[in-house]
Write a structure and sequence with these properties.
This protein is of the alpha/beta class and 483 residues long. It is built from 6 helices and 29 strands.
């Protein structure tokens, strides 16, 4: 036994020395990379990652047989990665679109599942497709379903190889066959027979459609509009690599691109990157790459070769359209029901447009540029009623309302007022609540103005202690009430 023990120790020591040498080389490369990046004011930081520590053969397998010029991307741990060959176009005209968007921080939550790790299998396309689908399922049901779906099914059953494939092939399969949960067919990081999938899956998700665009037929603005609905996948041409895009931000002077461990870096005022769009991707290289598996990239538009987005209905074994959550969490009168068609459970009087932020009563629907309608009465244009106006449908008041001389405002349905909204009835103006209900009513009738409550009309003054009327105001309240 002693002889065997003595033979093993030198071998173990040799392996340890080899590992230490490899780690020392990695640290040297990282230090040199960061030195070079800082000297050139390139806004990203290098570090040791799950990919940088792979062998060359493992990297070849991950990229389908040939390792592309990554320009250091395998060492990326934060900041804005500038793709090799990117040529800034100088200061661009101000974009009409919002400066940033991110599905990991919408309505107070992240709708994006955590990044997976494709390992030594060239399955980036499967992770991009499944990542998109998992987010789309959450958005479709307007709740965090959190169902982990199977990349392995796409590798084993749709592509039948770990090698290169395309998003459209994956989505065609998901539309026709559906995809099961991860627990039914766990990811192996290699090609295994499709028969290894469980025989009685508890879940199988199908899609009804998707849209695909080529960079030559698309624009950055179109990609932004697609992102306002849900995350998309992109094919990065230089690397033949698929990733899911979850958001973007416009690069501006002073933008902090890295803040960690007391090191804070921002974009200098003279940077040639100002005006460029940095796309936030969820990669498939695990949490030990990038910022917990996420990163920002700047690339020539032609390098975003294929852009794909899921559309339409979701079909599931566990859920149906009755499980779509319909909410008006902030009480602003605009509802949210997800990315699918308007469910029948949405009240008929609710506006067709969905709320852009269901946690902020001052923000309404999103326009095509990503901006949300301002619902704050203190900043909105007021409504002046100078003739006869009748409100016959249920709704919300998000502005100051002035009923002026000769104006008549008649309310015959339920109206809910924003907490900062008011109805002011001037001399010669008339407010008539005819069988209607005004919730959170904040009404003031000036001298010479009049208020009539007819057919059971109600002013419900929730949150307001005093109803205001000046001496000389005309009040006809016999057929209604102020509560």
């Amino acid at each position: 036994m002693d002889a065997v023990q003595h033979a093993q120790e030198p071998m173990a020591n040799a392996q340890t020395a080899k590992q230490q040498a490899a780690e020392g080389q990695e640290d040297y490369i990282v230090a040199k990379l960061n030195e070079n990046l800082q000297s050139r004011e390139v806004p990203w930081v290098a570090g040791r990652t799950s990919v940088s520590e792979m062998t060359y053969e493992e990297k070849k397998a991950m990229f389908g047989g040939e390792v592309p010029n990554l320009g250091g991307f395998e060492y990326y741990v934060g900041g804005v990665f500038v793709m090799p060959g990117y040529k800034p176009q100088g200061l661009k005209a101000k974009s009409p679109y919002v400066a940033q968007w991110d599905w990991t921080a919408r309505n107070g939550k992240s709708w994006v599942s955590g990044p997976g790790d494709q390992g030594g299998c060239g399955a980036c396309w499967a992770f991009a497709a499944i990542g998109m689908l998992e987010v789309y399922v959450n958005l479709y049901y307007n709740q965090l379903i959190g169902e982990k779906l199977s990349e392995q099914e796409l590798v084993s059953c749709a592509n039948k190889t770990c090698g290169f494939s395309t998003i459209d092939k994956s989505l065609d399969y998901i539309g026709d066959e559906g995809v099961v949960s991860e627990d039914c067919f766990p990811y192996r990081g290699s090609q295994v027979d499709c028969d290894n999938k469980c025989s009685a899956p508890a879940e199988r998700v199908r899609i009804s459609g998707y849209e695909e665009y080529r960079a030559v037929d698309c624009t950055e603005d179109k990609l932004k509009e697609l992102l306002f609905r849900s995350p998309v996948s992109v094919t990065i041409h230089s690397w033949e690599h698929e990733a899911m895009v979850v958001g973007y931000k416009e690069i501006t002077a002073g933008l902090i691109w890295y803040d960690k461990g007391g090191r804070i870096y921002s974009i200098p005022s003279g940077s040639e990157l100002i005006g460029s769009t940095a796309w936030r991707i969820r990669n498939s290289w695990g949490r030990n790459w990038g910022a917990q598996g996420f990163g920002y990239i700047v690339a020539d538009w032609k390098d975003m070769e294929v852009i794909t987005a899921i559309t339409g209905k979701i079909t599931s074994l566990k859920y149906d359209d009755g499980d779509i959550v319909v909410t008006d969490g902030d009480g602003d009168g605009y509802y949210v029901w997800g990315v699918g068609p308007r469910p029948s459970k949405v009240p008929s009087w609710v506006p067709e447009q969905q709320d852009g932020d269901d946690e902020d009563k001052n923000k309404g629907p999103i326009d095509r540029y990503g901006y949300m309608e301002d619902l704050n009465p203190e900043t909105n244009d007021p409504l002046f009623v100078r003739s006869e106006l009748e409100w016959t449908t249920r709704g919300h008041v998000h502005c100051m309302v002035y009923v002026q001389l000769g104006g008549i405002l008649r309310i015959t349905n339920q109206i809910t007022m924003h907490e900062k909204a008011k109805v002011l009835v001037a001399d010669g103006g008339k407010l008539i609540v005819d069988g209607g209900l005004v919730e959170r009513a904040d009404v003031k009738v000036f001298s010479g103005g009049s208020l009539e409550l007819q057919n059971g009309g109600i002013l419900r003054m929730e949150g307001f202690d005093v109803f205001e009327s000046e001496p000389g105001a005309v009040m006809l309240l016999e057929e209604g009430s102020i509560e």
